[in-house]
Amino acid sequence: MASETTKPAETAAAPADQKQQEPTKPTVLGEDDEFEDFPVDDWPDNETEAAAQAASGGESSKHLWEESWDDDDTSDDFSAQLKYVDQRPSPTQHSSQSRCL
Amino acid sequence: MSLVIQFLSQIRNFIRKQDGDSLRSWLQVGPNSPRQYHELRAELRNQYRQSGLDNIIQKCLPDDEDDEVEGEAVPWPSLVTFIKEYFTFWRDADYDADLVRTHQLLSTLVSSCATALTHPAYGAMLLKTSMSLSDVLARLTMTLNRRPELTRQLRTSNDDESRKSIAESSAEIIQKIFTACLNDRSSDRSSPPKGKRVAIYIFANLVLKLLFACRRIHLAKMIFFNLGANSPPLSLYPAAQRVTFLYYLGRFSFSSGNHYLRAANCLEAAYLQTPPRFTSHRTNILTYLIAANILLGRFPSASLLQRPESRTLAPIFFPLCAALRGGDFISFQAHLAEHEDWLLEKGLLVPLTHKLRPLLWRSLARKTFLLTYVPPTDSASRKAATLDVADLHAAAVYVQRRLEGWALANNTQEDPGTTLVPPPAGRPSRLRPNEGLVWGNAEVTPDHVELQLATLVEEGLMHGFIAHGQGRFAIIGAKAKGPVAAGWPSVWQSIQERRYEEDYNPDDVPGWVRV
Question: Residue ranges per domain, chain B?
């Protein structure tokens, strides 16, 4: 029979305190979930970029993305390799194939 | 007085007062619950038979409507069942020795809590208890999900219930609570949520977490459908719930049916609503937001990739974008191979491997045009700007050779023909289907190249037509804009301007209730 000092009724007011008095057990409930719970439930809009984005009609977040990314530079290595390939009169005369196969 | 009786007396008091907070504090189930719960367990094991315990519960929690005092609640039958299950849980559960059995007991307990919650008058007092129990169930489930050796025995069983994964069955149970909350009629759809409706997204997010963990994403469709039909606007809920929900909805759109525009809409909203201090959350969101935007032809800017949350993502996505810009299949494939494990784990390997090929072909065609096009010397010339399909074919054959392991040699002016030398072993590398330009080691033919060009024109990623007889791609509108700008319009703009069937609107994401 439990003594008066250990009844749950007395611990109801401060279950969190009680928990801290317990020896720490190895946790079996993982906390490394991929998208963890946020430590707080709510925060004001002004802590985020969303408010500025709404006020600017979407303009403020545009700098995060590049919509025109095409590359006109043909001085890179890959272009230099292709430049040579494209000088071949036709694919069937591609020297690497005719010579090496 | 025994602990069981003291416990039941307090529970009855809380029920009378409809004190949901105290019920949640008392009805603990976690492994780190205070010592009293373990003493309660010892008492349940040593001093009670099941029938005797049932009688005591029935006596302490009489579900007799005649006792009802105005303003006070009385126990109801499904609540009594729930409390019986609660004692059974504490008597039989063992987090140290048998997690699978503990999961089964907790599942039964949460399920009975879900039933008690549906009581039209008093059920809402169990809402917070439902949240805390579901939270423990979800965390225990995630633990088991990471330890398949513990649950293997269950899966060898033949009946349908057992074949379901642990995560799937937990998700189903919590979904019952989600449905009870969604169907609560305490408030209408447009006003701030009250009663059980305040918890709609807490439970939706728990279910979604479990469905993603057990890779049963398609089962989330019903949740989104039901939310679309009944939920108040998402904007009426706290920020953490909004962001978490939009993250899962974005990932669902990304994975189901390749709705990258919808995915990008959800994930961008989630990202912009997450304060910078939550770096790991922003990293998770950006992982899929960047991937979705690249698939839509919108690349992450240098300033985005320099943010703290991009620290681990920049080495993955920056080289990928560089390869796409240059049409460089060789770097692209090498980079995917280097990060294959990570991309696979994130569910990105398959979409990035296959769905970015049109962008690579587009850039390769563009680069080939830049290298081969000779503008007419006569400014009045009416000759169309064209790309010779044979030139693109030559480039493609070269790329395929490189993918098969042919190496660059020291090409010199005197002997330019030795640009490529065969692989060291003398035989081309055996390519998996996704590693070749067309299909593994399949030879790239002029027909393949022409088909690719025709597909790019059809998708609006290149602007012009194929003159099949002449073996050329002819650019339309070169005079006005210049041949390169006219022939290769912005991918992002082209995708934005696409028109769809009447019933498909990429801005309207099913499940995201806005107004």
Answer: 3-232, 238-355, 359-496
